[in-house]
Structure formats: structure tokens, C-alpha cells
Amino acid sequence: MLALDEIEIARPVIAQSPLLKDQDLLRVLIEATVEHQIEVARRPHISGRVADAIIDRAEPASLTALAGNRTADISEDALRRLVEHSRRIAALRAPLTRHPRLNDALAAELYRWVGDALRQAISERFRIDDPRLTDSVSRATVDAASPGQIPRLAHDPGNTDVDEMERRLVTKLQHAGQLRAGFLIRAVREKRLSLFEHALAALGGFPVSQIRASIHSDSPEALFLACAAVGIDRAVFPAVLDEIRTLSDGLPGAGDESYLTRTTVTPAAAVREFRSLMSRLTA
């Protein structure tokens, strides 16, 4: 009776009462208001049976609440149905992007219709092949390379033709509005260090010589600041650093990595600190 009462009375009962069982929660979903249904979807540790019933009803606000409920018993099939609903319900997309049970296949499906910011979040968790980005890179590479040239996968300081090709590729992507932080992660995963260097320089407004100096320094701090300046999350940076070290003979060196324990660095602050640090390193 209390769970079906006015929402101000029902809310704490639905959220916390251990006496409510699945059949009681299902009754609330059928008989009560949308506000009551939302509280059921938010209830900690709801069963798969209740989660499926919420998805069956397809009420947008309840679905969004369920997607944000990390403790709900949601099966892979139920999560797939939520991803399908997210095609028409935009509010579902952000919580699904962060959902701990999201897998590679569902992430790829979700990737198709989320915005750029959420695409970056997905690409940081999963290896997603973006057909639009792949096509753009392929077209720009063909345009940038003269006949007979084959793009190399890693930066060769002695190969100025390839380096110029990578620079022109980055310029084309930037003019097309497709150069973002997620592209940097893709570049290092594909072992294209030169492409990473030019892309990071273009995104941050830095000279590419400073980016290369940060990679060949004794500490990763300068590279960390450059990455933070363009929006690469601190939690993602260690993986990026490992990839870069495999491409540059273990550089940057270990140095003092206490910077990783700092509070979040804003992009604007990271730009200032990077430029100040590089002016000292290159003086």
C-alpha cells in the first residue's frame, strides 16, 4: 500500500524496503505512475525479471533510470535491447556508454548513433572501427601521397617524404572537422607515431618539434601535459604512454611520475604548463 501511495511517500519505500519482492515491484510498474516506475528502475539490486519488465514497458524515463543503475541484474540481451532503444531515446546513450556490462559488440552498435563526445568515451574503452573515420583517413592518405608512395606505420626521422605526408593527412582531417583526441589513441594503436605527433601538435596548437622533444625527454610529464591539453583523460594516458614507448625505444624515460597523482588538470592549465616546461627543456 505504501509503495503505491503518493510518490513522496512511496519513494523511500520503493528504494529501500527489503519487504518488497519481485511481484510487488512488478505490480508497482503496472499500476503506479511514471515517477513510481522510475524509482523501481533505480532500486538497488533489482532482479533480471524486473529489469526485463521495465524494458518491455519502454517508458523513456524508466529506461534511462535503469541504464544508470549499475547494480541491476541486466542480462546481455536486456542490455542489447537498451542499446536498441537508445537509437530513439538520446538520454539513454550517456549512461549506456559508462555501463560496466557494455561489451565490444554492443559498444560498436551504440557507437553508430552517439555524438562525438560519447564516441570518444567509447573508443577509450573499446577498439572501435569507425567506417567514416577509416574512409576519411584512406581518402586523405591517397590524396596526400604521390604515386608509388606507401605510407609507413611508424615515424622514420630520415624519411621526410613520409613525415610530410603524415602532416598533410592531419591537416586534411583537421579541416574536415574529424581530428579529435580519440584519433590520437587510434594512431598509437595502429603504430603510427609520426601521425600521433602531428595530430597532437595540431590539436594542441604546439610546434611538432616540441611534441617530439616531449617524447624523447627523460620524463613523461611534458607528454602528459600535451595530452591533457587536448582532452586525453589521465586514466587513459598510461596506456597511450606504453604504446608510445614501444615505438620510440622506451622513451620518454620513467623520470618522476608523481604528476599522475595530481588533481585533474584543466586543458587550459595543461597548455600553460606544457609551454612553460618545454621552454625550460629546450632552452
Describe, in plain words, how this protein is organized in 3D.
The protein has about 280 residues and is an all-alpha fold. About 60% of the residues lie in helices and about 0% in strands. α10 crosses α11 and α11 crosses α13. The chain is elongated. The N and C termini lie far apart (about 75 Å).
Key words describing this protein structure:
single chain; 283 residues; mainly alpha; 17 helices; 61% helix; elongated
Q: What is the gist of this entry?
A:
It contains 17 helices and no strands.
Per-chain topology:
Blueprint: H1 7-16, H2 22-31, H3 34-42, H4 48-57, H5 60-67, H6 76-85, H7 93-97, H8 104-111, H9 116-125, H10 131-144, H11 160-175, H12 181-189, H13 193-204, H14 208-215, H15 221-229, H16 237-247, H17 267-281
Helix pairs in contact: 1-3, 2-3, 2-4, 3-5, 9-12, 10-11, 11-13, 12-13, 13-14, 15-17
Anisotropy-based shape: elongated
Succession of helices and strands: HHHHHHHHHHHHHHHHH
Main sheet properties: none
| Helix share, percent | 55-70%
SS summary, helix count:
17
Count of beta strands: 0
Strand content: under 5%
Report the radius of gyration as a whole number of Å.
Answer: 24 Å
Structural class: mainly alpha
Instruction: Indicate the mean pLDDT.
Output: 83
- Roughly how many Å apart are the termini? 75 Å
Low-confidence stretches: 132-158
